[in-house]
Request: fold
Amino acid sequence: MPSGQRLENKVAIVTGAGTRGEIAGTGQAASILMAREGAKVLLSDIDIDRAEETLNTIEKEGGTAKIFIGDVTSEKDCEAMVNESVKQFGKLDILFNNVGGPGGGMVTEIEEEDWHRSIDLNMKSAVMGSKYAIPTMEKSGGGSIINVSSIDGTQAGSTRNVPYSISKAAISHLSRIMAVHHGRQNIRVNCVAPGHVYGAFPNRFKKMEDDWRELRKKAGPLGTEGTAWDVGWAVVYLASDEAKWVTGVVLPVDAGVQAASPLSMLGDIIGSEEPKSNLY
Ligand SMILES: NC(=O)c1ccc[n+]([C@@H]2O[C@H](COP(=O)([O-])OP(=O)(O)OC[C@H]3O[C@@H](n4cnc5c(N)ncnc54)[C@H](O)[C@@H]3O)[C@@H](O)[C@H]2O)c1
Reply:
């Protein structure tokens, strides 16, 4: 059963609405939460089985969703995706540009093909989705677009992931630029920047060891582990009318990791009061 009304009468598209891991990803969590809050959700994914898993959960809970299968790195598919939302639900109010993923290596390691794939997946997808969403949202009086950056977009991450990291930095800036360009159309554009989330993404390649999970927890001022659901709630807020005066924001969802410096967390990480700076 839908549990709230914060998104009642809203129509949303979530790209990457399935999950590649055993644990919910941000697209899956946000889709389920938006449906619980009353939105009708178009679940866009490249993989039918993954999209159906999310659809089944939403339908079991009494929510409303439909599936669109396409590749959001293709402009043609992005156009078709937005048209499908109008066909299924009559309009579009919310676009969560969630698709993204790694493309590895330092600059000395990057293969040209991986470079293009990563930039397309992380950046082009958000640009092309928005290109078709904005005129459609304008027809129904405005809307809310939420992009996904990452802690890796502001700081060098623990993996060496140049195309991913710079794409995420670009997505943060894209969100500010779009907020300025489309504010007068009553279209708000914001961004979430997840931190060390225990979700589908980091677990897909290598099962995350317990000691690494523990270390990721300790690196944040809150000292707790976050999941895709924490990111999903931030997306619900930015999508809702409660955020009607919020645009151009990059919201970290990271237990405070981006507020800390490595030395400020060192005592917590190594489990000691020391070392402390004795300079002051
Ligand atoms: N989980 C984290 O720790 C974390 C941290 C920072 C940022 N993020 C960001 O969150 C977003 C989602 O990551 P996740 O790990 O939750 O998702 P995920 O890797 O589980 O993928 C979600 C879905 O996207 C679909 N997908 C992949 N490529 C697609 C394409 N070209 N077109 C359409 N669908 C496609 C997949 O089939 C999958 O069902 C990404 O942008 C990621 O960079 C995640």
